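Hey,
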Amino acid sequence: MRTIFTILALSFTVSFMAQTHEITKHNGETMKVNFIKIENNLVYYTNVESTEEKKISQFSISKLHEKSKKEAKTVSEKIALSGKADYNKVIVLNPSQTEGLRESGTISSFLGKTKGETNLSFKDGAAKRLKENAADKGFPFIVILSTKSKDLKAVMYTY
């Protein structure tokens, strides 16, 4: 009975450890991982040789290949910007969602608040201005640092 239990435990362990995936990033880099889940624009995984849980931005990953089934799932499409008019393609991220993306600099701008303008409409205008500046420079992701009227700031990210 003890040997049967040991054999069953080993077979479950081996099958669990054999579930490897390959992540293909938008910059061409590939990683062999054990995929866990996708949640809040983050992909959770462990390295094949360790059990430490890691995370990477969903936007930096192109495809997730499951080795056992020879299937590939598209995680995100690459964002191509052609100028300031494509500002609506720029994605505003939280700082925790930038793992795997490359920081490319900081942009700042000035936006005056008109009399009678609500705080919400001002923040929307500030986000639009920062997205336009990032799209003009060709960066598809930003993290907004400040939305004060005299000091709009954002950090730009790329693949």
